[in-house]
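Worked example 2:
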Amino acid sequence: MDSVKSACEERMKKAVVALKDEFNGLRTGRASPTLLDKIRVDYYGQKTPLSQVATVSVPEARLIVIQPWDRSLIGEIEKGIQKSELSLNPSNDGKVIRISIPPLTEERRKDLAKMARSMAEQSRVSIRNVRRDGLEDLRKQLSAGGVPEDAIKKEEEELQKLTDSYIAQVGKTLEEKEKEIMEV
């Protein structure tokens, strides 16, 4: 029975981690190196993550500086950033690429907050699905026999508490992201 709870907890943890990763890709009014995590650059015929071909730094609140290790990649990196859904305009001086992060409009902030809420809801649904799977496993154990019904009930209550705590984590993570998005 403990294995059911620990397996469920592991899957719920992964759902929260996945949500945080998704949130990192959401653009806010502030510069962050994680904003560029999903960008891939064509490097010797391979689609390579930007972080593996360049140093990404944030010297100011609204500026990202990318310093490629191989200067011949500057054009590829610029192309990758322009093709992304981030709506950013990179500029280069032949050595480094600078990306100025413009302040978000009120309408864009509201859209991003709505996207964040949608991502959080998907995460909540996935946590509830894990709970449902865990409850099914517990019921199978009960029908197979050998496990007292009151022990199963106790495990179901524990699983519900676990679910509630992870859903609360999703709520807290969403609240922090919305606050970051709505910052002017």
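The mean pLDDT is 87. The helical segments are 2-24, 74-83, 106-144, 149-182.
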